[in-house]
Amino acid sequence: MPALPRRTVLAASLALALGAGPLAAPAFAATAPATTVRHASAPDAKALRAAIAGLPNADATAALVRVGGTGGSWRGSAGVHDLESGRAADPDARFRAGSTTKVVTATTVLRLVAEGRIDLNTPIQRYLPGLLGPRFRPVTVRQLLNHTSGIPAGDGLGETFEEVYAHRFDTLPPQQVARSAGAKEPEFCPGEQQHYLNINYTFLGLLIERVTGRSYASEATRLVLAPAGMRDTYFPGTDPRIRGPHNLGYQRVERADGTTEFLDVTEWNQADRFAAGDMISTTADLERLVTALFRGRIVPRSQMKEVFAVPADITGASYSAGGLQRFEVDGKVYWVKSGGRYGYNSAIAATRDLSRTLVYSVNSTYAKSEDANPVVVGIITAALK
Questions:
Q1: pLDDT tens digit string along 294-344?
Q2: pLDDT tens string 351-377
Q3: For the chain, what is the radius of gyration of the CA atoms?
Q4: Total structural domains in the chain?
Q5: 302 inside domain
Q6: Which of 75, 189, 336, 368 is most deeply buried (CB count within 10 A of its CB)?
Q7: Is 298:246 a contact under the CB 8 Å cutoff?
Q8: Has this prediction a pTM greater than 0.85?
C-alpha cells in the first residue's frame, strides 16, 4: 500500500486529538518553536462541503462548521435536527460544548489574577483548605491550569455508557467530585508530569467561587462571556435541558441481537462537569471567544503570555495555562480545545495570529469514543489545509 501523504496523516492525527479527547503522547511536536505562517488562501469550500455531506449517517446526525481567517470565511451545516422528523439541522443551534468550557474557566482565572484576587504560584490548599488530603504536596493554581497537578480523577456516576445513562438525571455536586479526588493517592508529584484531567478544572471552578463569593457561572459570564459578546452561551447547572434552538444528540448502541439503536441523549444533568465541561454554546459564540481572546480583548496584556504558556521542562507537554493545546500541522502552530459530551463533539482551533480559525459542532453518535470520528477527520482535513 502506498504511504499516505504527510498532510493527510497529520490532519487525521489532529482529528483524533480533537474528536476523541487528549492523547497520552501528542501527535505533533509540542516544543518546536512557534512560527507564523499566515493563511492567505480562502477556505476550500468544495472540500468542506464534501466533509459534511451525506449526514445523517452511522457516525453523526448533524454538523455545524465555521472557518475563518485572513483568507476569508466559510459557514456550513448538514444533517438533521432529529432523526424522527428528518428536518434540516439548525445552523445556529446551541449544543453541549464539553471541555471547550475549560478555555472559559482558564480565562476567568487569569482575569482574577490580573485583578489581584488569585496568585498563580499560591497552592490551592490555601484557597480551598481540606479538599486535598495530607499526602498531597502543595499544588499551585498554575499547575491546575496546565494539568500538572498530579490530582487523580474524582468519582463519577459510572464507568460505562449504560451506567452513566441510567444516572443521567442525577446530580453529582462538584464539591463531592473534588473531595473524592482529594481522598485518593496523588498520581505524581506536582509539576513532574502533565496529565489532562477534568478534576483540575473542577478545583479551579471551586476556586473562582471561593475568592469571589459568587457562582462560577456568574463570574465566567461577567468576566468572559459578556466581554466576548457570547450572548447565546450559558451554564445549565443541574438543568438537563438545552434551552433555545438545538439539534438532538444521539448515542449509537448495539443491541444484543446485533441491531443498532440510536438513543436520544440530549437531556442530561451535567452538574458534575461544572467548570470542566458543562457549558452550552454555539459555533458563532465559540468563534467570538477565540477571536476576542487571541486579540487581547478579554485577558489583560500582563496575563496573555499564560494563555500560550506550555511547561517547557516536561517532556511531551502540550497543554497551556490558558486551557488550550498546542499542535503543529505542516509548519503551522494551532491552539486547540475539543469537547465531548454524549451526543455532541465540538472544538475550536486557531493560529495565534488568527489567520485561520475553525469551530465545529458534530452530533457524533459515539462522542466519548477513543476512536476518531470520520466526519470530524474530514472537517479538520479540509479546514486546516
A1: 999 999 998 999 999 999 999 999 999 999 999 988 788 999 999 999 999
A2: 999 999 999 999 999 988 888 899 999
A3: 20
A4: 1
A5: yes
A6: 336
A7: no
A8: yes
